[in-house]
Inverse folding.
């Protein structure tokens, strides 16, 4: 008999299923694999999620909530200037990637590449997560601009979008090459030029 629908079961399915989706991808990970990994009947899945797409959309939200918390911890540290905080967040993500043998990548990027063209509900949640992420990074860049550590004419929302696109691309290259050179290139070519361009205004 299926277990009653409970918040604990939903959270357990999300936690377990997110790991399976991240490891296998959307197409290769079915509802049965998720429920078997979670140790719950398939009926329990449908008590909480009307479809696999709805589950994947919820998994995107769950992943972003965790990543957003990590981002907030890094960017709210007053002991370091804004640009150093932002760079520190990316370096922390790279360290996790390297510790995992450059496998997995960013779940948001993976899902965007795999399902954005045919899973509108997932695409909607991905777009919301990326918009939120861009806004957070833009706010930190605006702090750096006000402090004079990046040029006064920096378009912070546009720069935030470029940084995140470059970050996702660097993760993909590192997964393919199985080394961190693309990640190191991202850091040096994204952050160092910003500081150099700001230097004359500080003279």
């Amino acid at each position: 008999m299926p277990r009653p629908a409970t918040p604990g079961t939903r959270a357990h399915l999300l936690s377990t299923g997110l790991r399976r989706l991240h490891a296998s991808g959307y197409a290769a990970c079915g509802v049965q694999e998720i429920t078997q990994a979670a140790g719950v009947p398939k009926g329990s899945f449908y008590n909480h999620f009307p479809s696999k797409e709805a589950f994947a959309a919820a998994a995107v939200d769950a992943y972003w909530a965790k990543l957003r918390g990590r981002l907030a911890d890094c960017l709210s540290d007053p002991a370091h200037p804004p640009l150093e905080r932002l760079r520190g967040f990316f370096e922390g993500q790279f360290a996790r990637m390297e510790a995992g043998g450059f496998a997995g990548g960013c779940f948001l990027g993976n899902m965007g590449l795999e399902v954005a063209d045919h899973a509108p509900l997932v695409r909607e949640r991905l777009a919301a997560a990326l918009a939120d992420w861009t806004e957070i990074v833009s706010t930190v860049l605006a702090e750096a601009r006000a402090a004079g550590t990046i040029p006064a004419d920096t378009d912070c929302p546009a720069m935030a979008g470029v940084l995140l696109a470059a970050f996702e691309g660097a993760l993909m290259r590192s997964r393919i090459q199985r080394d961190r050179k693309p990640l190191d290139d991202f850091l040096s070519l994204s952050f160092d030029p910003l500081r150099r361009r700001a230097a004359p205004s500080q003279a």
